[in-house]
Design goal:
Tumour Suppressor Smad4; about 140 residues; 7-stranded mixed sheet; mainly beta
Amino acid sequence: MATAAHLLSFEAFEGPTVGTRYDTTSADNKITVGRTKASKLHVDDETVSERHGVLLWNQDTGTWSITDLNSSNGTAVNGITLEPQGGEGWVYVHSWVHRCTTVCYTSPPISTVPCTLKEGDVVRFGNSKLRVQVHTVQ
């Protein structure tokens, strides 16, 4: 039986890369995000750090996660700023949004609670905003 591929796509809708589409697969279980062409997800935006973040595929849970790697201008998902990590720790985002609606008092809110990227999430790298699309292909 063939293993399903889990595609993660981003479509830029705000910032200097508007209209650009970025496609990845779970075969790339670690996707580097940055301003340089050495990054697997190369975002050509001067507000994106050279080594801005990383996307990780977790085979056990079948989910993608996102981590900010101490970028200069930050990373946010659905308006929730990710706390920068020095390495490749897991920072998930979606569930945090639901828990945060009544208990979050920081401005802007900062996520330190694990959660996964979901279809339709909005990710901001620097000044570029991208919409997440998650696909499973048999």
